[in-house]
UniProtKB/TrEMBL annotation:
GO MF: DNA binding; DNA-binding transcription factor activity
UniProt KW Transcription keyword: yes
InterPro entries: LysR_HTH_N (IPR000847), LysR_subst-bd (IPR005119), MetR_PBP2 (IPR037406), WH-like_DNA-bd_sf (IPR036388), WH_DNA-bd_sf (IPR036390)
Protein name per Swiss-Prot or TrEMBL: HTH-type transcriptional regulator MetR
Coiled coil location: none
Protein origin, superkingdom: Bacteria
Similarity field: Belongs to the LysR transcriptional regulatory family.
Organism expressing this protein natively: Zooshikella ganghwensis
Domain annotation HTH lysR-type: ranges: 2-59
Intracellular or extracellular location(s): Cytoplasm
Gene3D superfamilies hit by this protein: Periplasmic binding protein-like II, Winged helix-like DNA-binding domain superfamily/Winged helix DNA-binding domain
GO annotation terms (biological process): methionine biosynthetic process
Any single Pfam family the record assigns to this protein: LysR_substrate
GO cellular component, one term: protein-DNA complex
Length: 305
């Protein structure tokens, strides 16, 4: 059976041009190298070199094995280097899914800064609305999930990122703007604009409307926060969004916003990570970078330890 050492020997012989130079390159004696060549020839039942040729000249069988060595040996060396860097935490894979459309506001600056520090980490980003990201995380199809809905799963840790309040965004002239806070019954006559996800995953339902047994008059979906704001500003409906996602639009007076209930509706955003990756240096640095970026870019949040 062919072994990697056989391919390395053949490649060294071809590239160095002599038995002496190849032995020095492989850090073996000429005698040991000759035995390796004889062993390889015995395994394939064919000669590798034209005997007594100067410089060394490969046979047809030798060239076939050389082409294999030229393909395989560099790939093995590259993987060995990559494994070494993985062992020291210099590189890795970070495939991320998010369950929050508005999270792009802080996630993109986080990724931009992170790439500067970890250029060799393989980054990928996907929306978690079209598939189940937490099971994908368990299967190692993903490496990190941004979620506000932690589920107890074996081998998964949830790092609290920050706490935020959901506010009801309203047109500036809407009658509900006169209220100090919104009550569930107020939405029974409203068109509620939501992201295209299951209602049970949205704070406005699971922490507010469902508890009071109230349904909005109508539901309209939109994938883009900006489109939601435009619909609200034009009087097409109302929408519950994180306070930090509304800051820009409130400052420009496009819309207004009110708390949901007397005490407000509060949630925590988490980073879900597999336990076997949690302490990897590149993962720990991403978590710290995300927290720093949130503090710098978002208003109205409470950073959690």
């Amino acid at each position: 059976m062919l072994e990697l050492r056989h391919l390395k020997t053949l490649l060294a012989l071809y590239e160095s041009g002599s038995l002496v130079a190849a032995a020095e390159r492989l850090h073996v004696t000429q005698s040991a190298l000759s035995h390796q060549i004889k062993d390889l020839e015995d395994k394939i039942s064919a000669s590798l070199f034209v005997r007594k040729s100067r410089p060394l000249r490969l046979t047809t069988a030798g060239y076939k094995l050389l082409h294999l060595a030229q393909d395989v040996v560099p790939q093995v060396k590259a993987v060995e280097r990559e494994l070494g860097r993985l062992a020291t935490g210099e590189t890795g894979r970070l495939h991320i899914a998010i369950e929050c459309h508005s999270c792009y506001q802080w996630l993109m600056p986080t990724l931009n800064q992170y790439r500067q520090h970890w250029p060799d980490v393989e980054l990928d980003l996907a929306s978690g609305f079209n598939f189940a990201p937490l099971p994908a995380l368990c299967r190692a199809d993903l490496d990190l999930v941004v979620t506000a809905d932690p589920e107890p799963l074996d081998g998964i840790s949830y790092i609290p990122l920050f706490r935020y309040e959901s506010l009801l965004a309203l047109p500036k002239e809407h009658p509900l703007t006169k209220k100090r806070f919104i009550e569930p019954q107020d939405l029974a006559s409203e068109t509620l604009i939501i992201y295209p996800v299951e209602q049970g995953r949205l704070d406005i339902f699971k922490q507010f409307l469902d508890l009071a047994g109230v349904e909005p008059k109508a539901i309209r979906t939109s994938e883009l926060t900006l489109m939601m704001i435009q619909l609200i500003a034009s009087g097409r409906g109302v929408c519950a969004l994180p306070n930090w996602a509304l800051t820009e639009y409130l400052e420009k007076a496009y819309i207004t916003a009110k708390p949901l209930g007397k005490d407000g509706v509060w949630s925590t955003l988490y980073l879900a990570v597999r336990d076997d990756q949690l302490n990897a240096p590149y993962m720990q640095d991403f978590i710290l970078t995300a927290k720093d970026t949130c503090v710098e870019t978002l208003q109205g949040i409470t950073l959690l330890k």
